[in-house]
Structures are given as C-alpha cells and as structure tokens.
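Researcher: Here's a chain I'd like modeled. Treat it as a single chain, no partners, no ligands.
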Amino acid sequence: MKKLFQKKVQILHHIKVGPGYFRMGLAFPELAMVARPGQFVMVRLPDGYIPLLRRPFSVHSRLVEGAEVCGFEVLYKVVGQGTQAMSGLKAGDLLDVLGPLGNGFSCPDGIRHVFLVAGGVGVACLCCLALFLKEHKGVRSTVFLGGRSATDVLCQEEFDSIGAKVRITTEDGSLGEKGVITSMVEQAINVNGRPDMIYACGPTGMLKAISDIACTHEVLCQISLETVMACGFGVCLGCAVQKAGSPGAYLHACTDGPVFDSRAVVI
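Model: Modeled as a single isolated chain. Structure tokens:
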C-alpha cells in the first residue's frame, strides 16, 4: 500500500527562475523520501486565499542537506488565479500538502538509453527522473527541451550536471535550433537510431506528436499528462482520459496516471 502524507509544511525557499516561472522548496522530508519520479502532490493555499481547492504539482526534485533529506521542490508556471496567488508567498509561509499521489514513471529491465522530451514547464517531472535513471539504473539520457522562446526553456543546468546530452529548440529561434521539439526528436531517431524508451511531459499537442513518433518507430513511450484535477485521488472524476481501444471507457489521470503508456490512452 502506498504511503500518503498530509500536513502543513513550511516553504524553505521560493525563487523566480524566469518570467512567470518559480521554484519552491517545501520542508516535507517524509514525503520526499518515498515520492517517485512522475508522482505529484496536491497543494492548498493558506487560509484566506482564493481558490480554495488544491492544485496539483509534480515533484520536481529532492532536497538534501548533508546526508539528510529535508524536503522537495516543485517547479511551476503562473497560469491562473491559484498559481498567481502562490507566487506571492515567501519562505516561512505554510502550505497544506497532500501526497505523493498517482503512478510515476517505470524503467523496465534492459533499458540503457532513453529520450526525455519536455515542453516548457513539463520539464518539472523529468529532472528527478533523469537523476533516478542515472543513479539507480545506469541509464543514459538524451534530453530534448522545447519552448516558445528562450525564457520557456528550463533546467538545462540540472541536466548538464548529471552528464545528460541536452538538445534545445525554440519556436522563435531565440535559443537552440528554431522549430518544434517533436521534429528534433524524430530527426534524432532517423539519424542516430531508436532509444530504448521515450519519456515525455508537456502540452497535449506535443504529447500526441511524440506518441505518434514512438508508434511509427516502434519505441516504448511513457507520457505524463498535464490534466486539471480537483481532488487528486479519484473522487471528483474530473481528470478523465479516454482509454485506447475501448470506446466509452475512461481512465483517470490522478489514480491511473498521471504517467501512462502512450498506447493506453487517446490524447
């Protein structure tokens, strides 16, 4: 049975890392120690803030002081009322955090080289995955980071620090190659050969294109869906996604995902 924690925890740091992008550290070691790459937490703002409902955030990284785990980070973009309010919080403030929730990424035996494909803030769940794959599986990662412009490309330094090969595209050409990340992924497969697995998180259109590329080239692919959630544990049923091959049947991102085999769902 999965361990689940809920409590009010202190914000350790809250750093603006780009226009509209923030990285927040939370003092929650017991959650950090059991959370796996791809899992998420549901966060509720302090009393008096709107909205009242929790918001989902991927576990971005584990925080360590010396040899001790002291908490974890979330990486987020301001996109609405909830994240706008959250962006004004500061170190020392308290947040009500529930987690870890959902099913994360898996790495079958025999995997040696993977592609990690991130669109914008979709990179949030892939940083801890890259570190886990290197430290626990000895897996080599090629990372593809894409965004509209240079300000939407995040975490390059984190991937560089673990020796991952990083390739970047921006739609306006302000960083890396000009174009879309999915074209670079397909080109890499055509030129250098197939990876053993593709892991991806980002906008729905990007995930559909990556899933199609994986299918065409017969590559295993796991995708993390960025779906609106109200509860995070299967009560509200608001994060339904159609099950592939079963018209009228649905899975739920909060309990069946957010990570899915790309062949299991209709995007």
